[in-house]
Amino acid sequence: MGRALDVPILGTGDLLRSEIASGSELGRQAESFVDSGNLVPDELVLAMMKRRMSQPDARAGFILDGFPRSVAQARGLDAMLEEMGITLEAVVELTVTEEEILGRLEGRGRRDDTPEVIRQRLRVYRESTAPLTEFYETKGLLLRIHGIGAIDEITQRITDALGADGAR
Ligand code: AMP
Question: In this structure, what are the phi and psi dihedrals at residue 94, rounded to the nearest 5 degrees?
């Protein structure tokens, strides 16, 4: 798994895919949701992320990628962080057009990148995930970043928004 700002990136989709690949109980429970482009039930995702955030490499901080994806998950995350004594410092929204998203997924070839499943994932995003921007804006945590351009340009925009050296 990747690192940035010198902390690990905890990607919910990556973690779910490795649970599925290993054939674990969690993987078996998650598989049909991932394959159809729907959200894996909150209690499974919240428990998985709590376990991951509790590992030693996450002690100095972490970046959550693809989580939370609904207001219910965001409330669950708040409760978990409070219990763990961790403060959420910032939420980054990368804004891109649907056209750009479709172009990027085309080149990726993941099993859930079929046209039908992509349509469903976009629908779920609009219905369940998009309301999170207002949730975090209200908390004063939201950084809205233009997500089109070269990867290093977008990285720079994010680190600039987080603070001059990218380490807050
Ligand atoms: P991603 O790798 O972020 O594109 O996620 C791939 C799939 O994993 C999604 O379509 C969902 O089925 C599942 N998934 C990833 N993150 C979450 C989450 N926070 N909550 C529920 N399901 C998730």
Answer: -95, 115
